[in-house]
Amino acid sequence: MSLNKSMHPRNRYKDKPPDFTYLASKYPDFQQHVHTSLTGRPVVNFKEPEAVRALTCTLLKEDFGLTIEIPLERLIPTVPLRLNYIHWVEDLIDGQKQPRRGIDIGTGASCIYPLLGATMNGWFFLATEVDDICFDYATKNVEQNKLSDLVKVVKVPQKTLLMDALKEETEIVYDFCMCNPPFFANQLEAKGVNSRNSRRPPPSSVNTGGVTEIMAEGGELEFVKRIIHDSLQLKKRLRWYSCMLGKKCSLAPLKEELRKQGVPKVTHTEFCQGRTMRWALAWSFYDDVIVPSPPSKKRKLEKARKPLSFTLAKAGLKELQAKASAAGCTGRGPVDSIGALLEKTLTDLRVLHKRVPCRRHEQSLFLTAVENTWIHGRQKKREQKRQLRELPRAPRCAGNGSQPTGAPAAPGPPAPALNQPATATNSSGQDGNTENKTTSSHESGQEAARDISAEQREVLDAVTVEDVDMESSTCTEAGQETETKETAAAASELPSKRPLSPAAVQHFLFKCLLSVMQEEGDVVVEMHWVEGQNKDLMNQLCTFLKNTLLKSVAKS
Fold first, then answer.
1. Hey, what domains does the chain have and what are their CATH numbers?
2. CA triplet 214, 167, 291: central angle to 5 degrees?
3. DSSP secondary structure string for all residues of 315-383
4. Distance from chain centroid for Cα 537
């Protein structure tokens, strides 16, 4: 999924991605790397270093008037990502066009941050580099773009960060520093071994960085900690210290390190572009700096408020109403019938539910799930079928080759116990990060359901565990009180309907609000997250309820 819509608001590529067709027609060096996909769209193979370099050089020339050269054996930057960082620094120092002084730690062969900052904003840069090849190319790129009066490229010894670079400039106060640190600690991490979640797809672009550009002792975590150590000695020599991070897991320990050191001003952000995510951390020892709020909080809140939903088409509603009527539900319309069928299914699943007030022509249920019974049912049925297939045949009788009457059945593997606690699975395949985790506080649950009606919010405030009923009040199964042995055996395939103990209710999986409403002849079912352990569990239940209703339509 493309993340372009989450780019920095001022990024020129946010709403207008590069036009490959136009750029290919204007720049012959880029044209040879543009191919036509099966759908007729122009595409670039980001696995080819030559193609990535051609795109970067073309964009810098077309959009910024910069001409650069980059060797294939050194890091080739992507322009939209670097622009995100530049714009965030603008937010930090609160000024785009004023003369500012910055430091780029490890500027690379492209020298892209100083070139963009000087061209766009007239910033002065001290660009440091430890690699000989990168230093030579960076110096050449600054000179051929006639920016030597704004950008000073300096060669520094290995492992030099800020302290040694500023030894000779004791009087100058810099507004900021930027750094794209080496992300990896060793060759295995650089190749994705033990550093990339197995569920994530492989990188979409090639990595061409040199050893000093992509690897450092301890990886990016220790590298940035060294910058923090330098900042504790330099303090107000720079108004803002900042670093870009390649791993989200590095963010929390670095923020904790800053907290331990008593740094007063700390903030962070996300850089989103294409299929790539990066994170950035900034800190300051000045009391008067303006600290921008992390934009990710807004995106998380929007994601939390968005309900899960599915639609039941008008064409199948009559069959569902007929099924509800046959089960003893006396509803006036499709919303009542669908609501009754859902209540029956929830009762069978032992998902606690209680009706709550809502708008006219709508039904709402407050759900409390205490165990993952919707997954257990499918697993049990599959296991039973597998056991039947694997049962060994009884020995044949001598003479007629038939099985003797009354021969005992061969023992099969023990059947799994019903209602075992289930481990929450992540069917979405996303990384286990803070985007997937949810708070269990009641306040956050109300915030997540902010777009629910005012009447429903009032009910959510008043609902307690003791108020939640398990049984449906509108639909009962015929003959339930005089259940025969045959119906009892059939019911054993579903989770037991015995009441849950109070202790079990205290340890719930999640709570949500389920709403059934009619829209232009169709019926829409929505599930609003309130609180719990994992939103993916609600996603699973939503899918189970949808499939249960759709199977009823298909059978009829």
1. 78-294 (3.40.50.150), 305-379+438-474+493-556 (no CATH)
2. 65
3. GGHHHHHHHHHHTT---SSHHHHHHHHHHHHHHHTT-EEEEE---TTEEEEEEEE-S-HHHHHHHHHHH
4. 16
pTM over the 0.85 mark: no
Q: One digit per residue, pLDDT tens: the chain, 556 residues?
A: 355 667 888 999 988 889 999 999 999 999 999 998 877 889 999 889 999 999 999 999 999 999 999 999 888 999 999 999 999 999 999 855 577 999 999 999 999 999 999 999 999 999 999 899 999 999 999 999 999 999 999 998 887 789 888 877 777 899 999 998 875 444 444 444 444 454 444 444 544 444 444 445 667 888 899 999 999 999 999 999 999 998 888 999 999 999 999 999 999 999 887 777 889 999 999 999 989 887 655 555 555 567 888 988 888 888 888 888 888 877 678 898 999 999 999 999 999 999 888 777 788 999 999 988 887 666 666 777 777 776 665 555 444 444 444 444 444 444 444 334 333 333 333 343 433 443 344 444 444 444 555 555 555 554 444 334 333 333 433 333 333 343 334 444 445 455 555 445 668 899 999 999 988 788 999 999 888 878 888 999 999 999 888 887 766 6
Sequence-distant (≥ 6) Cβ neighbours of residue 459 within 8 angstroms = 356, 357, 366
Report the distance separating Cα 468 and Cα 355, nearest Å.
Answer: 9
Query: In 3D, which of 510, 444, 80, 460 has the Cα closest to residue 297?
Result: 444
Judge contact between 52 and 33, C-beta under 8 A.
no
Instruction: Give Cα separations from 412 to 17, 382, 419 (angstroms).
Output: 61, 15, 21
Look at residues 172, 176, 160 and name the one whose alpha carbon lies nearest to residue 104: 176
**3-class DSSP state for residue 416?**
coil
- 59 residue type, one letter: L
Per-residue three-class SS string for 445-486: HHHHCCCCCHHHHHHHHHCCHHHCCCCCCCCCCCCCCCCCHH
Q: In angstroms, rounded to a whole number, what is the distance separating the alpha carbons of residues 522 and 335?
A: 10
Residues 6+ apart with CB under 8 A from 122: 97, 99, 150
Q: Tell me which amino acid residue 335 is.
A: V
